[in-house]
Amino acid sequence: MVKIPSIRHVRGFDVARPVSIGVVLAIMLPLVILPLVSIFVVGMRRGPGFFWASLLAPEAVYALKLSLVTSFWATAFNVIFGLLAAYVLSRYDFWGRNAVIVTISLPTAIPTAVAGFALLALWGPQGTLGRFLFPPEGKQLMFTAYAIILANIFVTFPLAFGVIKPVFDTMSRSLEEASATIGATRWQTFWHVTLPSLRGAIVSGALLTFARAVGEFGSTILVSGNLAGHTQTAPLYIYAKYNSGEVGSLEAANAIAVVLALLSFVIFSVLFFARDWLELETQEV
Amino acid sequence: MIPKMALASDVDQHVSWAPDREQKTGVAASVRGLSKRFRKSRVLEDISFDVAEGESLVLLGASGSGKTTILRIIAGLERPDSGRVILHGKDVTDLPARERGVGVIFQAYALFPRMTVERNIGYGLKIRRRPRKERRETVDRLLQLVQLEEHRKKYPWQLSGGQQQRVAIARTLAYKPQVLLFDEPFGALDAQTRVHLRREIRGLLRKVKVPSLFITHDQEEALELGDRIAVLNNGHLEQVGTPDEVYNHPATEYVATFLGAANLLLGVITEQSVEIGSARLPAAKETRRFREGQSVKLVFRPEDVCLSPDANLPEGCRRLANGVVEEVSFVGSYERLNIRLDLTHRRQNQNEAPLYQVTINTPERMTGVPIIVTRPKPEANATRYRAGDRVAVGLTSFSVLPNYTLARQR
Q1: A181/B98 CB distance under 8 A
Q2: What residues of B are in contact with residue A183 (Cβ under 8 Å)?
Q3: Given phi > 0 = left and psi -120 to 50 = alpha, else beta, which region is A220?
Q4: What is the C-alpha separation between A66 and A184, in angstroms, rounded?
Q5: Which of A11, A202, B33, B391 has CA 20 to 30 A from B19's CA?
Q6: Distance between CA B385 and CA B326 in Å, rounded?
Q7: Is A284 helix (H, G, I), strand (E, B) or coil?
């Protein structure tokens, strides 16, 4: 861990330290910490037995599984594409290069509902392409798990790219040149030299993408059709349960919310604490 | 330390790190007529030189002189606009870097950060799909050669600069390179380590006998590392020669001034001597290649000047002129004097004593030509000079160069 150097401004006890830390925590408490704590409180309200029961309800399990699987494929695609795009865009200069970079980054700035709507407008039964490929009476692409993957890919598109590209840009060319003079082909150089140096960026890019995809709501609710046990992801499940008004459904929604919150917590802990481990071997290079 | 050294040299007697070749042609690497432009600017112009078998050649030039471009062209990392690169008799100009088999030691060493020392060294053989046993043996021998056995499992960032450099060299030796190319090998190190490492590398190269090309802007480094030195200026070669040749007999003014300090005086060839203002320096041998009346430059090093308080200059020292000591300063290991030569005042009469009219504030104060002289300590202690002393000035060694008005005429 990095040791934080500090400057002493005052003699004796420095009152600024506890006060400033206290202010930060006091602001975070109602805005971030308490809301998170209350999902645990509400989720556990009817006792751990009920918590487990609502967690293991077939629809809940299905929703969690669907979320994880669709997020996994979206992540796999975006990491591989991000790697390729970062390589191409940092190694080659071509006409329209900057336009491509801006376009790749665009999905972060677009509201997710718009993203979902855009997918429907293209692939939906009345969509510009969907009209011919997936007519209303035939098989649909929208309102399936594939549509969820498409939506996840769209909204998390620039995340992995955004983490990998700067590493590519700052990577010393002489490593690849050294590998070439030693006798390696381009592919061998990429595999043995370039890729290992990107390990940290790939892992953090993947985790970021995954965390974002698991929580995606706005676009999925539009493209998935939100059919329980069929195309209902975990966030949609929470929303559906909250709206249903049945007895105990609030606690059921909370049980899933607890799982999602814990998952995000784990992912971001890994991102934070694994940073040292991931960057360790690139020090002083 | 000592037994390990003995071990290391034992190893080398059995193994050659130079490429296996049937006949030794004498020339390991040569470039012929290399030219290169980047956009509008000319980077290299008609560069040709050879690196002999087992030789170390230093390309010496200021930054921007094109020396790195030459190295990159030989390595195959850059394409020349015209000219050929020949390695051991084979034209490799059109081959990509990976098929040339040269070893490049990059400025920051470019060790693979995610590989241990032994995997870095073994990389060339792994790429060449050599059997595991051969790979392990070669790596072991190289680790012994560069004395890094106890560091084999470490990562590059855990090593000192000098150790990293040795790994970089071992990594190229593993595949028996045609030629070793060193890009400013000591640029990233402090002055002390630099001197130490340069001796170490010199010793290592003597053992492995792989022809090497060094690139540097440091003249001291060039003189120490090179069997021969090629001086590069603004994209063209000024002179190629042994350290003695380029230092003591510079072919051009640039070489004279780039390799250490040099005094420059303008003169004219007159009757087998160089006439500089009122002075005449006899130089039958040095002036042979010039015609009578040709404008020349007299170039001499500060340490090649001899001084005398009277007219009796030591044996082997040709008299140049009289002068006045303007400043004496001690610069650590030697003494430096600024002397103003009396070259413009008047010509000395035939029978006049050499130090006639000994007065300060003679016209040379204003019109004289300043030169710099250095003397070793024993000499400085034997005869002390102070500012204002008048001295006779002679030269033990100098070169006469044509004085072109335009650099183009070279």
Answers
A1: yes
A2: 98-99, 101, 124, 127-128, 175
A3: alpha
A4: 42
A5: B33
A6: 10
A7: coil
**Contact flag A182-B102 (C-beta cutoff 8 Å):** no
How are beta strands B295-300 and B334-341 bridged, if at all?
Answer: unpaired
User: Rounded to an integer, what distance in angstroms lies between the CA atom of residue B410 and that of residue B406?
Assistant: 8
User: Cβ A178–B98 below 8 Å, yes or no?
Assistant: no
Residue A189: C-alpha distances to residues A181, A195, A211, B103, B172 (Å): 10, 9, 31, 16, 16
Q: Are B135 and B124 in contact (CB under 8 A)?
A: no
Q: Where are the alpha helices (DSSP H) in B62-188?
A: 67-75, 117-127, 132-145, 161-173
The CA distances from residue A126 to A115, A146, B250, B364, in Å, are 16, 18, 84, 100
Measure the CA–CA gap between B101 and B78, rounded to whole angstroms. 15
Distance CA B76, CA A162 (A): 33
Section B172-195 average pLDDT: 87
Cross-chain Cβ contact A180/B77 below 8 Å: yes
Q: What is the DSSP letter of B81?
A: S
Mean pLDDT across chain B, nearest whole number?
Answer: 84
At B115-136, the pLDDT tens digits run 999 999 999 999 999 999 999 9
Nearest-10 Cα torsion for B19, B206, B30, B251 = 180
DSSP code for B186: T
Read off the tokens for A237.
């499940």
Helix H or strand E encompassing B307: strand B305-308
- Give the global pTM: 0.78
Q: Which of A177, A182, A276 to mutate to test the interface with B (most CBs of B within 10 A)?
A: A182
> Could you count the other beta carbons within 10 Å of the beta carbon of residue A256?
25
Token digits for B212? 């090497």
Burial of B282 (0-12, 13-18, 19+ CB in 10 A): middle
ipTM of the complex: 0.78
Question: Minimal Cα–Cα distance from B162 to chain A, Å?
Answer: 14
Tally of CB atoms within 10 A around B358: 11
List chain B residues with CB under 8 Å of A182. 98, 103, 123-124, 127, 171-172, 175
CB contact under 8 A, B75 and A181: yes
**Measured distance CA(B410)–CA(B407) in Å, rounded:** 6
Element (H, E) at B320: strand B318-331
Considering only CB atoms, which residues of chain A are within 8 Å of chain B? 172, 174-175, 177-185, 188, 192-193, 196-197, 199, 281-285
